[in-house]
Amino acid sequence: MLRSAMNRGADTPRKGNSTMTESPIPLETTQGYCPPTAVQFSVFLSNKVGKMLDLTEHFDDAEVALCAFSVHEASDHAVVRLITSDSKQTRSILKDNKFPFSEHEILLVELSDGHTLSKLCLYLLGAEINIAFAYPLMHNSSEDPAIAIAVEDPTLAGQILRRKGFQMLGECDLPNRY
Question: Which burial class, exposed, middle or buried, applies to 40 when counting CB atoms under 10 A from its CB (0-12, 13-18, 19+)?
Answer without folding.
Answer: buried
